[in-house]
Structures are given as C-alpha cells and as structure tokens.
Write a structure and sequence with these properties.
The structure is a single chain. Strands 1, 2, 4, 5, 7, 8, 9 and 10 form an eight-stranded mixed β-sheet that branches. A two-stranded parallel sheet has the order 3-6. It is α/β, with parallel strands linked by helices. α2 crosses α3, α2 runs antiparallel to α6 and α9 crosses α10. The longest helix is centred in the C-terminal third of the chain and has 23 residues.
C-alpha cells in the first residue's frame, strides 16, 4: 500500500509596509502592538516618512522605547526637537531629531538590524523613488521624513533626498521586492482630505477654544513670540496667518502658508495612495481613522497609538487568510501594555 506524503505548508514571509503621516505615524506603534498580540512575526519592514522612523525602531526591537518617549512628551518637548535654520531649502534642519533617534536606536546601521528594513525617499531633482537599505539609519530616516519646504533635504550618493511620501506613501511594492509573500499595509492618510474639508466648513461656526484647549500650532506660536531668531519670527508670522480671516466672514477661512503646503502634500499622497493600492493591493490593509490629527500633534500620542491599535485589531479579526507565522524573523519586541 502506498501512503501519500503530506507536503508541509510553506510559511508565509510577512512584510509590513508603514505609510507616511507625520504625527499620525504614531498609530504604527498601536498596529505593531496588535500584531504582537496575535503572535505574528514580521519578516521584513519598509517605511515612508514617519513610517520609516517607526519602522527602523521596530526592526531594531526598540519601538516600545519610542512609545514611552512620545507618551511622556508634551508639546514643549516636541518644540525642543525643532532646530530652525535660515530658510534656504527648509525651515528645520532635522539634526535634533537625528540625535533623538540616535539615543533610541541600538543599531546604528542597516546591517546591524535583526529584522530587514528599508526606508523610502524621493530624489527631489529627478522625482524618482530612492529606497535606502544601507548606511546610517538616522540619515535614512531623516531623508524619508524631510517634508519639502519644512525640513532640509539630505544629500546621499549624488541624490538630494526628501520625503518618500511624494512617490510611494504606503510602500507595498518595496516590501514585495524584499521578498514578502503576505503584505500588511498601514495607510494613515485615507480620510485626511475629507475630514479637513469638513473641518473647514464647520470652522466658521465653531466657538473659540479656551487657553487650556488651544491646538498645538497655537501653543507653538505663542511660545515663539518672544524669540529674536529671524527664522522663528517668520514662523510666528506664518502661524498667525491662520487667524487672518475672522470667524464671521463668509465661507471657510483662507489657510496660511503652512496649511496650504501641508494640504497640497496630503491631497497628493491621498490620491497617489489610492492609485498605488489599486495597482498593487496588499493582502491586509489597515486604515486607522486619523483625518483630524494635524501635522505636529505628537502631544496626542496616546490617543493616536490607541486608534492605530483598535484599527489593526479589527482588521486582523476580519482577515480570513491571515498566516499563522512568518518565515524567518523573530517576533519584533513590542510593549503591549496600555
């Protein structure tokens, strides 16, 4: 009698694509926590902009330290990370953020990471996508989150690199090229345009916030009013433009220069993400509802992380083809304490 041999199932190689999103990127921490609770092992990661920052910490096994740092950081601590420069190619140099990351990262180079990781950037001169997988991590992260006009670009091997969200906001294709057979993607910008439009429409009838409820940008503006630094003085003037149109005027207020710049980025990234996800759909898509979170609202870290966690938990519970484990890597260490 011949007995048929059962072929062992080949485990999936799980890849995680962490999308851009500035402060909304802290939701990736919650997503990682949800993956850890399900016992999923991530074999490779790619990140764009804030996704690159969280991805590098996750690949090094230190995303729990990042969570603790941001949960305990108030808006004054966030302002302390900004290093304004005379505006030539950007308002903020980004070196203070590099030093902040240097203190958190146990691995200084890509090759030192226990889990493969790549950072997505844009060459601002050619418009091409540049994926970094070698060299110093902090420089790659800086390049990936360098929003044009706000953070200074980074020179790298003949390229002038800025935010990768301009070309690949949710790097599904990058993770596939790394060998992932099951891709989990996190899109943080899917509802930002719609929610910003709704906010603009209702703004004219909204009551003014009390001093204790002032949004992050107002608190930054008030803090910077006493500065004598010419760049910071210009920043104060730009932030003040947000109040230029009175509430009783017809229609929504005319946005200031930062709002216009960021809205342009958001619209572009949102539309590009939709196209990319149709062309190269991930196996599991997680879309936390974060459209009301502004660019620098890192002081809402706890709220953002929990939104990411709940969105991931729901998506995982609804996924019918979820692999039981990855193929190669050890589980990424992540705190699951709330």
């Amino acid at each position: 009698m011949i007995h048929a041999m059962k072929t062992p199932a080949i485990p999936s190689r799980i890849g995680l694509a962490l999308g851009s999103g500035s402060a909304r990127g802290l939701a990736h921490i919650g997503v990682l926590r949800a993956l850890a609770e399900r016992g999923l092992q991530v074999d490779c990661l790619a990140g764009t902009s804030m996704g690159a920052l969280v991805g590098a910490l996750a690949a090094s096994g230190k995303v729990d330290d990042l969570e603790k740092a941001f949960r305990s950081m108030d808006w004054r601590g966030i302002v302390a990370l900004l290093d304004p420069v005379f505006p030539r190619s950007g308002l903020i140099d980004g070196r203070k953020v590099e030093r902040f990351l240097q203190d958190l990262l146990p691995s200084q180079y890509f090759d030192d990471l226990p889990t493969p990781f790549q950072a997505v950037c844009t060459d601002i001169l050619s418009g091409t996508e540049v994926v970094l997988s070698q060299g110093r991590l902090v420089e790659a992260i800086h390049a990936s989150f360098a929003v044009p006009g706000i953070f200074t670009p980074l020179r790298h091997e003949g390229h002038i690199l800025v935010d990768g969200g301009l070309v690949n906001p949710v790097p599904v294709s990058t993770v596939r090229h790394m060998g992932a057979s099951f891709v989990i993607a996190v899109d943080l910008n899917h509802d930002i345009v719609e929610k910003r439009m709704a906010t603009a429409v209702t703004h004219t009838t909204a009551p003014l916030p009390s001093s204790s409820e002032l949004p992050f940008w107002m608190r930054v503006r008030d803090t910077l009013k006493t500065t004598r630094h010419p760049v910071l003085q210009q920043l104060v003037e730009w932030l003040a433009e947000r109040d230029a149109v009175p509430l009783e005027s017809e229609g929504p207020p005319i946005p200031g220069i930062f709002e216009i710049l960021l809205a342009s980025v958001y619209i572009t990234q949102s539309r590009l993400t939709r196209i990319n996800l149709l062309h190269d759909a991930p196996d599991l898509l997680i879309q936390p509802p974060l459209g009301d979170i502004r660019f620098m609202e890192f002081d809402r870290a706890s709220e953002i992380i929990e939104i990411g966690y709940e969105a991931a938990r729901q998506a995982l519970s609804e996924c019918t083809n979820l692999p039981t484990q990855g193929a190669m890597a050890k589980p990424i260490p992540i705190s699951i304490e709330q």
